[in-house]
Amino acid sequence: MGAKGGAWRRRTGVVLGATGLVVPLALTVGAGSAHAATACTAGTGPYQKQVEKFLGRTVDGKQSTGDCQAIRSFQQTHGITPSAGYAGQLTWRTMDTMLQQRAAGKTPNKAGKCPVNKGRIACVDLTRQLSWVQDGSKLVYGPVPVRTGRDGAETRTGAKRIYQRTLNHWSTIYKVWMPYSQFFDGGQAFHSTTKSMWNPPGSGGCVNMRPNDAKAYWNLLKNGDDVFVYGRKPGT
C-alpha cells in the first residue's frame, strides 16, 4: 500500500546518467545553516569510517563536529531518526544501498535475475531498492531508486501482472492520494510519493517512486504488462 505523504526536504548529490538516480556522496553544512546552529555532540559510531568515506569527509574513524553535522544533515534529508549525527547501522545501511544503486549503472539486470523473455516488463530489485523497465534485454527506462515495503509489510516477490491503473488513487487505509497507481499484486502498486526514496522503514507494501519516475512508468506500462519482483529489502 502507499506510504503516508511527506514533504521532500531537499536533494543533495550527483546525478548518475540520464535516469536521474540521485546519490548524495557529499553533504556539507554551511556555517550559517540551521543545522550548524544547534550543537552536534554525537560520539563516534560503529560505521564511522564507512560513513566518513561516503560523505567525502576525512576518513580517520574519529567523530568531529563537522562529521557530526554532515551525518545529521544526511539523516534529516532522508528522515532517518534519531537525526543526531551518529554513524549507526541504519545510516550506513542506507548509504550502502545508495552505493549499490550507483554501481548498477546502465546494466541493472547484469546478473540476469529479471526475465528477458517476457517482452516489456517492469523489474523490481528489493535488495538494491531499484526498479527499471526493460523490453527483452533492452533497457527502456531507469534504473531508478524505489521505496518498498517495510519489515512486516514487505513487497511480495515473484512474477506479477498489472491489473488495475488509476491516475490518482485514494488509499482508504492510509487516507492519502496515490498518483499514477498501477496495481500488480493484491493492493500493492507502483505509485508516486513525495517522501525520500531512502526514507526508512519503507512503505506499506507498495513500490513508492519519485513523481517523474511514476509518471514515466504510467506512460510506459499498461494493464496486462509483466512485473517481476525479487530479492530482499535490507532490514527486513
What does this structure look like?
- The chain is an alpha+beta fold and 236 residues long.
- Helices cover 22% and strands 26% of the residues.
- The strands form three sheets. It has a five-stranded mixed sheet, covered by helices on one side. A four-stranded mixed sheet has the order 7-8-9-10.
- The radius of gyration is 18 Å and the shape is globular.
- The model is unreliable at 2-20 and 22-36 (pLDDT under 50).
Keywords:
five-stranded mixed sheet, single chain, 236 residues, 5 helices, alpha+beta
Short description:
This protein is an alpha+beta fold.
Number of helices: 5
Task: Decide which structural class fits the backbone.
Answer: alpha+beta
- Percent helix: 10-25%
Rg calc: 18 Å
How far apart the termini lie comes to 17 Å
- Please mark out the parts with pLDDT under 50 across 5 or more consecutive residues, or reply none: 2-20, 22-36
Query: What best-fitting shape do the alpha-carbon axes yield?
Result: globular
Write the layout of secondary structure elements.
Elements: E1 14-16, E2 21-23, H1 34-37, H2 48-55, H3 65-78, H4 89-104, E3 120-125, E4 130-135, E5 138-145, E6 158-161, E7 164-171, E8 176-185, E9 188-192, E10 207-209, H5 211-220, E11 226-230
Parallel strand pairs: 3-11, 9-10
Antiparallel strand pairs: 1-2, 3-4, 4-5, 6-11, 7-8, 8-9
